[in-house]
Amino acid sequence: MARILYLTQIEIDHGARRCLPEECQRVGMKKPLVVTDPGVRAAGVLDMALAALGDLPHAVFDQTPSNPTEAGVRAALAIYRAQGCDGLIAVGGGSSIDLAKGLAILAAHQGPVDGALKTYATIEGGSPRIPDTVPPLIAVPTTAGTGSEVARGAIVIVDDGRKLGFHSWHLMPKAAILDPELTLGLPAWLTAATGMDAIAHCLETFMAPAVNPPADGIALDGLARGWAHIERATTHGGDRDARWAMMSASMQGAMAFQKGLGCVHSLSHSLGGVNPKLHHGTLNAMFLPAVVLFNAPAEAIQKEQRLQRMAHAIGIGSCDAKGTELAEAIRALNARLGLPSGLRAMGVTEDLFERVIDGAMADHCHKTNPRIATRDDYRAMLATSM
């Protein structure tokens, strides 16, 4: 089994879930609340994780929505407090892990919790308000996409309808247990959509202008690993090597995006808030080509030859200064994976544009893009992505 100490403790291997009791003991967790969703339970994956816990007392919240909400956080908090839990184990995709992070914030909150979560949001200046008294969290991802298991942030739809980011090193899971066996039964469409989320993280963080060479190196390796294995994982779900590689690519994307993301995520976060039924990873895949083309003229992109380096990582050899080949390669990969041809195929219509642009302009990823987008720029990216 590989143990990685970077940002947090990471166990990655087939069967890594068997480390759960050891990790609970290490972080002082005597009665965790296991946070998951109905799909994970129905697929039998939750049973695999609970079996690994052995006789450790625990409670379960299994109603995480596909996009975590403040109402869902409060429902889980009620169980956490009623059952006398002292820590959290998130078993699921990014939604379950992010809901658990939101729960950790409210568990440490003093006073009434209704509507309280937004006061901790990054764009509300809330990061310093997140205390170090949040309960410990162990993350067990069941998809290879968000990388939330090694991220200090969470995305939650708060009571006023906004899809907001919450960021603090206190939210970093105390352990990330990456067991590719938990992803072997993942449906092909979800494998593709979550895999493109991981690839988007690697691509977008590599384009972000902040100076962070280690993050750049991790992003490039994660990009190459994800691009080389996503089709095998999608079409041959039982391919253990491909599943391991995608789980690593997902982790690496999130390790790297501590550096920052950009317009892909500004748009995805906003549109996902307008219509929570839309899958975040699929939205990222739809926006990537347009954002690559928009970012191409940025000084940081041209000076560091970032388009060419990304092209090399995915094996297309070269890319012009406009990013054309890279954008086309992403579109072609989306097509091969069976993802939608564009936003219109997902049910998005032009009448939503202004609401989406409002959210994108206010998103925490807006200012970390290599080019700061205007409303007109966002409108053009939306139109190109239709």
Automatic annotation (TrEMBL):
Cofactor(s) for this UniProt protein: Fe cation
Residues making up the signal peptide according to the UniProt record: none
Keyword annotations from UniProtKB, A to Z: NAD, Oxidoreductase
InterPro entries: ADH_Fe/GldA, ADH_Fe_C, ADH_Fe_CS, Alcohol_dehydrogenase_Fe
Domain Alcohol dehydrogenase iron-type/glycerol dehydrogenase GldA: 9-180
Ranges for domain Fe-containing alcohol dehydrogenase-like C-terminal: 191-385
CDD domains: Fe-ADH-like
GO molecular function: alcohol dehydrogenase (NAD+) activity; metal ion binding
Family membership noted in the UniProt record: Belongs to the iron-containing alcohol dehydrogenase family.
Protein name as it appears in the record: Iron-containing alcohol dehydrogenase
